[in-house]
C-alpha cells in the first residue's frame, strides 16, 4: 500500500486549476489525483495536457463535494494509507504534504488534521474556511481560531501550534483512509458545505481525535464554487447544519437545540426581508423546509458513542459571545 495521495475535486475549474495546480505539482511529494465531477469546460484537457503526472478519475455526474469524494475515493480504496483532500483553489507550500502526513502518522489516536489556512487574496489574514482550527458550540454553530463568524484575524504567529480541535477544514484535510471508509465517507445528502464537520463529529463520537498543525501553511482563495454571501450557500449551511446536529445528538437535546436555533434564524430571516434580501430570507426558510422533508434519509448511529461531546471549544454559545459580549477574537473567548 502506498503512503498517501493528494486528491483534488474538480468541477468546471479551468481558471482555478491553471492558477493553483503549479504550486501543488511543485511542492508535493505524493501522488496527485483529480476527481472530475463531469465538468463541461476545458479543465480536464488543461491538466491532462500540461500535467501528465496527475491521475484522473472521471465521474458521470456532478455529485457535489460529498458525493464526488465518496465515489472518487472508492476508486482508491486499499491503495493508500492516507488521503489529503485539497480544494482546487488552494496554494500550497514546500513540504506541506509530507509534514501533514508525518504528523498524523505519528498520532495514532488522531483520524484527521488540517494545516493553518490563510487567505490567498490577503496572505496576512486567516481564511474563512478552517483558519486556525475549528470548534462547535453547544448549538452546533462552527467557529475557528482566527475566524469567528465573518470576523477574520490577521496572522502574527498566534496559532503556530499543534492542538486538538472539533473539526478540520475540507479545504485542506489529511485523513486516514481506514477511518474515512469506517465512517462510510461523507454524507452525500449534504452535497456541499459542512460535510467535513459532520464527518469529524462522527469520528470524534467513535473515539478518534481531530488535530491542527500550525507549522504547515496553505493559502485558500475561497468562493471558487459558491460565493460565501450567496443565498444558496446560506440555504446549504442552514439545511446541513440542522442535518448534522440531528445525526449526532440525542433526540431530546436536538429538540432543545432546534427550538433555540429556529427562533434566532427565523429572526435573521425577518431581518433579511426588512433589508430587501428576499432570496436570503427564502434560503433560511427553504433550509428548514428541506431539512424536515428529508429527515427520513438521515441516519443516526445505532451504536452508543465512545465520546458523547459536541465541543471541546472554550465557549458554549458563540452567538452570545460574538453578538452580545462583542468578543470578536478567539483569544477573548
TrEMBL record:
Keyword entries, A-Z: Glycosyltransferase, Transferase
CDD domains in the record: GT_2_like_c
One GO molecular-function entry: glycosyltransferase activity
Domain Glycosyltransferase 2-like: 6-109
InterPro entries, A to Z: Glyco_trans_2-like (IPR001173), Nucleotide-diphossugar_trans (IPR029044)
Signal sequence interval, chain numbering: none
Family recorded in the similarity comment: Belongs to the glycosyltransferase 2 family.
Listed name of the protein: Glycosyltransferase 2-like domain-containing protein
Organism encoding this protein: Algoriphagus alkaliphilus
Classification of source organism: Bacteria, Pseudomonadati, Bacteroidota, Cytophagia, Cytophagales
Amino acid at each position: 500500500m502506498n503512503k498517501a495521495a493528494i486528491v483534488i475535486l474538480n468541477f468546471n475549474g479551468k481558471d482555478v486549476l491553471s492558477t493553483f495546480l503549479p504550486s501543488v505539482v511543485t511542492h508535493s511529494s505524493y501522488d496527485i489525483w483529480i476527481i472530475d465531477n463531469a465538468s463541461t469546460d476545458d479543465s480536464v484537457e488543461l491538466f491532462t495536457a500540461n500535467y501528465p503526472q496527475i491521475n484522473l478519475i472521471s465521474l458521470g455526474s456532478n455529485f457535489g463535494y460529498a458525493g464526488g469524494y465518496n465515489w472518487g475515493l472508492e476508486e482508491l480504496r486499499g491503495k493508500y494509507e492516507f488521503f489529503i483532500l485539497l480544494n482546487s483553489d488552494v496554494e500550497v507550500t514546500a513540504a506541506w504534504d509530507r509534514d501533514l502526513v508525518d504528523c498524523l502518522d505519528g498520532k495514532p489516536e488522531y483520524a484527521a488534521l488540517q494545516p493553518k489556512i490563510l487567505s490567498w487574496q490577503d496572505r496576512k489574514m486567516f481564511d474563512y474556511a478552517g483558519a486556525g482550527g475549528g470548534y462547535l458550540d453547544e448549538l452546533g454553530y462552527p467557529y475557528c481560531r482566527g475566524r469567528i463568524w465573518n470576523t477574520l484575524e490577521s496572522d502574527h504567529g498566534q496559532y503556530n501550534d499543534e492542538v486538538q480541535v472539533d473539526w478540520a477544514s475540507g479545504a485542506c484535510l489529511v485523513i486516514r483512509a481506514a477511518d474515512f471508509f469506517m465512517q462510510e465517507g461523507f454524507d452525500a445528502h449534504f452535497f456541499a458545505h459542512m460535510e467535513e464537520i459532520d464527518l469529524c463529529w462522527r469520528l470524534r463520537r467513535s473515539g478518534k481525535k481531530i488535530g491542527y498543525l500550525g507549522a504547515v501553511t496553505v493559502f485558500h482563495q475561497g468562493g471558487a464554487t459558491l460565493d460565501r454571501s450567496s443565498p444558496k450557500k446560506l440555504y446549504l449551511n442552514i439545511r446541513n447544519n440542522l442535518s448534522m446536529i440531528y445525526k449526532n445528538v440525542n433526540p431530546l437535546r436536538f429538540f432543545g437545540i432546534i427550538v433555540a436555533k429556529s427562533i434566532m434564524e427565523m429572526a435573521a430571516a425577518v431581518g433579511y426581508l426588512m433589508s430587501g434580501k428576499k432570496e436570503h430570507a427564502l434560503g433560511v426558510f427553504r433550509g428548514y423546509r428541506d431539512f424536515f422533508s428529508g429527515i427520513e434519509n438521515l441516519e443516526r448511529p445505532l451504536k452508543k458513542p465512545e465520546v458523547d461531546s459536541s465541543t471541546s471549544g472554550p465557549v458554549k454559545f458563540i452567538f452570545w459571545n460574538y453578538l452580545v459580549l462583542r468578543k470578536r477574537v478567539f483569544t477573548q473567548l
